[in-house]
């Protein structure tokens, strides 16, 4: 912090947030946590501070996370070699067990502790708890890769009602007691939709949607669902951006008000996105 | 605001408030509003912004006000001459009617509107509403100058429970339907005590309690009730400071956790006092 | 009271009220207070007793008041001369300030104290508190004369829920912090409509709607909205009665069940109207 | 009703009740119903009207009844001869079955219907329902004559909370499924005590406690528990009055605030007792 | 109980109920009690145990009863001869009084006590309490035989909400304070319908609906409303079975999910019906 | 299940549970899950069925688990060798990470899924969630082996209030974000104490406390705290039984009503213990 600031200047800065706070107090904001912000220690600390602050001032925040490199890490240590079918990675029983352990055990509890340390009141859930996320096999050749069939949001609502920050690891279950590996972005979209969230923040390692993907200055600040579709057809949205954008558009169709592809590499990007006049990425809205 | 600040710096500043917000969320803070902060238009705007922001993030704020120069103003216009008995000003029936009109009518509604405009949800009360403040005649020669006999805090609690900012004008009533002019600081102390407030902020036009009253750098940051008494005996607290300090000490005995004699001339002094590491004046605490 | 009555006769009289009480318990009754009943000291006492009794037995009562002669009174004292444009009185800034002081300060607190003294639990509000009544300028030449644009009834409902008698002074506000003078009958109609009141009582200094305006015995006990319109077209309703009746008809269209133009000169006219078989004036009903 | 009364006089009479209503609203009043008021059709109608009115205006009323002549009546019809042991009447199995049928079936439902017809919301209970009154055999020679061992007041409180008038027939039960005939006055005292009633009204066919039992003008308006004991020792209270007074004194020791031996032969005696300045009998109070 | 069972076998049996319990927990089950199960002492005890157990584990149970032979019994004792008009039995005033006494007094309280003794928390109601069942005269020649016009289910819901077992005797009332004798099955169907019950159990002395009425092995386990109508047209359902089946079909049209004509002669038939895989009779369902 | 049982016999068996169900409905039962019942697949299924059934009928059940052989299993696979100091096993950082993953990830989610499959509504927690269990280092030489310093039971109570089965893995946290391995029995005792549980069931692989440890027929059915202490002094309780018994005694001092050392090798031992007349082990009670 620039230490030349007077207290009055500090107060002035806080007051600038008033209209933004007013907008989100009592509403639900879901953060899909991932990318650099999950690896870089300092960014991680800042994400946790942001979550705790927002929760404290009365915004209902939910943290949805995948596992990043920790899964590969443990698989390597266990000498587990990835298998492929037609170029797609197979999740066999042993692998899904590792995924479950890493996500619901290691990563989830680690995030809960980070929030605890920052003064938050967090509780970890997985898609298995209270059958939060139900799934079925997507492609029998790929093993335990799940396609979401149902979201039972009650446990999350119950925790939000009691003032907790739910931290959700993105695995799913079915009626026979199987666990599935599921796509984190898709899960976040479903959860945010079921909560009729005011905003879903997709933390990524990019600036947002760019008109010229090599020029960050061409960032598009806001996109309607229709505009997003048009941009895809015209090829502006291409490659790895396609599923990301699709997920944002889906989230809106599930009931989320706005979805933001957010640059998680920026310090305190969540606060900036929610409490300043600038935002931090590309925001999707209904038409 | 220093416009050279980046969004990340802004977020960093907000995050610094986390421990202070944590301390006050869900608690009650009573502000005795007066002095320069009530006359200077810019300071007034800032007080209102501070109140709305605190209310929004879940702190229960109450604004207690007197009438400042507006009473004298209307009395002059009405050609009403102040009377005195042994050097003390007399509040006859006509005067107390003017006081009531100015405080509960003009000043109270003006403050409510200021809060409205800033986005707050404020409701004005006087000591007459719900028999909030009951009083009796203090000295029969002085007319309708009241000594507080009882505080019925329920209406204020009811409004706080429903999320409103109560704005209270300091007049009192009795069982026969009389109105009394009462001391604003004393009323604030009683109200804060009845609410078991976490903090009572007494806005003044001084820096706080000074060891050397001519040297602002000798400000005493914190005083226990016992220390305050000792300072008075030793003459450090003297003159007009005596009743002010007495009122603070009383407030603590009524159940308030901390009372602050605060310099209301500083912009956003309320936010600075509550949400930064510095405070803005002298804080009184239990021993 | 006729002192020859036995206790048994008294009890018999009370029992006669049973069906009327049954009808109104738990329902909302709005009283637009004005005219002689506001000036004559004895009538005023009786109105207050009636309000307290009704509140006590579980009827939700709201008192809406204007200012009567007190505004003119203070304007005279302040040497403020009324201005006119095309024969219409202008409310300049200074005047609306006086109106606010008198209504929200003097008159409102005086009524609250009357109710207090009778054992009621009353809280004063104005159209400014909680932005209860929002308005805009009606005719730019007339200054701060407001046309109601919105009623935010929540503060009134909140007070009724907690058992208070809301006492409302009929001024209004806008988003810029201006105060407006508004028509009391219109305000009462809007408030009663927003509360879906069972009954709105318009206290006046006339018997009600008369077929022959010089003969009180030609009073019309009940009128449907259509009948009222027909009577106006046929000229039976004329002169000063036209806006009064229009206001009653509007109130019904806003959601009030029945509206009564009531003779406030009769002692305890409110109790008579609500708890006896006779009523006290002309009642308007939906068709 | 004296038909010469004007509406204003009627209203004046109602207003006189204000302080009495204020005293009892939200409080519990238990009426032990019996004697002439239960036999005379007109008095019965009036008791029911009184109960409904009190319930309607927010007083929690409970009606406790015995069976009067109806039990003897049915026993006669069934050719059942009363048996005696040492001059005391025996309640054999067959008799207690008749008592149960008459009290809980005939009388209770008849009273519930009377209250229904008057517009009340009444539900009948007996000491058997929810094990409201538990008892044991008092004297083995007398059969099913019970001595109260426990009152489980929850069902009565539950009904009062939901706004019903509980109508209770005074029989009792035990853990083996037996029914007992119990003394109505004693049962009423226990029930009123368990409800911490504001007042218990014992309807009788006498004026109250008289200093000279042959001179109604010597009625004692109020008696402390100690005074009652003294009067008994001095012989002023004697004969059949002894158990009645004892019951009143016990009720106070169980937690009732005031108990009244009331003259049930007076029309609307309940309303007179509660809502006028006179009362209708002798009131017992704590010392 | 077969005393050779080990604890583990007992536990195994209990666990078998899991899916059935899951289905009914939190739902409402209405039992129309009658026939042999009401006369045979052992069966009666078992019905009461079943009710208490179901209530305890969180199923909302309601017991609806008629009077069986007890009415005739008392009429005989009182020398009351049944009258007939066109072969139909007449219920004169005296008779309906007897019915009320027996049902609401004797039988109702007896059942409440049985439930008490088994550890239940039961409260008896009749169609008169809270005007639960309103009726009008069906055929003026038959006297007080009622046709149900309205069911005010609130008192029953209130008792279920507070955890009681309501025990309801099937008489009805009207606005003039008359009592009516009504058909028990019809009353049960109306009550179950008003409660949107999950299941209505009609206890009878037959196996259920039989294809060949002389061969119990031809029992029909389940019938849709349409199938029931078809069976009636084809004559399979005939004689006394017709009104019984009609009543079941009506109950479904009133909002009950399933209705069962149940063999009440089987020990613990209620538990068997609800908690085992077999059921005990013929179940009716929507098409 | 003995397939020769008739439905009536089944119902009879269920009814036998009535008094036991009555005792535990609405109360809290904590099960410390471990030993054979956690390894043997059939026993595991039965434990889960028992938990779901108890939860369903309104008993608040909590499952507390350690990790059994799965921790060693994963450590082996990762080539992690146990270290020892003075014969005590050391939990270094890497080990506690493995413990956390296995307990909070693998085992916890596996149990939650088992309960899901049986129809339960389970949510997994660890000592880290909501800072449920706080600990400090016990012996610096042993690394992350924790000694419990505080239990924040609110998250568990919140889940029980909403009807969930909390499944708790026994790890702990501190203010710096460390995880600790803690003793499962001790954790269960603390959790049960904080919940003021009616009963804590310690599942073991022994019959209970035996007078002659080689003769199961010498099992002691019930022990007071004092008797337990005496038996320890006399040497009857010895060896591995000492810490187990100490833990039971501690649990009682923390507020648990009864603690049972239970033989988890018996099928459906939880149901047998709670719902039959026999119990399944040794029960400890206050003196």
Note down, in words, how this protein is organized.
Six copies of one chain form a homohexamer. By secondary structure, chain A is an alpha/beta fold. The first copy, chain A, has helices spanning 7-16, 18-24, 36-39, 41-56, 69-77, 93-117, 154-161, 184-194, 225-233, 241-254, 269-275; strands at 28-33, 60-65, 83-85, 88-90, 122-126, 133-137, 146-151, 165-169, 171-173, 179-181, 199-204, 222-224, 258-263, 281-285. In chain A, strand 6 (133-137) and strand 7 form a beta hairpin. In chain A, strands 5-8-2-1-11-13-14-12 form an eight-stranded mixed sheet, with helices on both faces. In chain A, strands 3-4 form a two-stranded antiparallel ribbon. Chains in contact: A-B, A-F, B-C, C-D, D-E, E-F. The interface between E and F is large, with 38 and 38 residues.
The residue ranges of chain A in which pLDDT falls below 50 over 5 or more consecutive positions are none
Write down the oligomeric state.
Answer: homohexamer
What is the helix/strand order of chain A?
Answer: HHEHHEHEEHEEEHEEEHEEHHEHE
- The CATH topology of chain A is Carbamate kinase
């Amino acid at each position: 912090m620039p230490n030349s600031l007077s207290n009055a200047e500090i107060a002035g800065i806080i007051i600038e947030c008033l209209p933004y706070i007013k907008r989100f107090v009592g509403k639900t904001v879901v953060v899909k946590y991932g990318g650099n912000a999950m690896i870089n220690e300092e960014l991680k600390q800042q994400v946790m501070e942001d979550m705790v602050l927002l929760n404290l001032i009365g915004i209902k925040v939910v943290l949805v996370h995948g596992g990043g490199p920790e899964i590969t890490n443990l698989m390597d240590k266990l000498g587990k070699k990835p298998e492929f079918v037609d170029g797609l990675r197979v999740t066999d029983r042993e692998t899904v067990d590792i995924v479950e352990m890493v996500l619901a055990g290691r990563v989830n509890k680690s995030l809960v502790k980070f929030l605890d340390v920052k003064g938050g009141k967090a509780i970890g859930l997985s898609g298995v708890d209270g059958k939060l996320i139900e799934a079925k096999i997507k492609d029998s050749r790929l093993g335990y890769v799940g396609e979401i069939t149902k979201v039972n949001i009650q446990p999350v609502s119950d925790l939000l009602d009691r003032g907790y920050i739910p931290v959700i690891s993105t695995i799913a279950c079915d009626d026979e007691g199987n666990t599935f590996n599921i796509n984190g972005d898709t899960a976040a979209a479903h959860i945010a939709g079921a909560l009729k969230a005011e905003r879903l923040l997709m933390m990524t390692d990019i600036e947002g949607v760019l008109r010229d993907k090599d020029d960050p200055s061409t960032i598009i600040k806001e996109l309607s669902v229709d505009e997003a579709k048009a941009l895809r057809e015209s090829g502006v949205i291409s490659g790895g951006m396609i599923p990301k954008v699709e997920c944002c558009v889906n989230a809106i169709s599930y009931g989320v008000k706005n979805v933001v592809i957010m640059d998680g590499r920026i310090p305190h990007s969540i606060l900036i996105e929610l409490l300043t006049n600038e935002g931090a990425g590309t925001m999707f809205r209904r038409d």
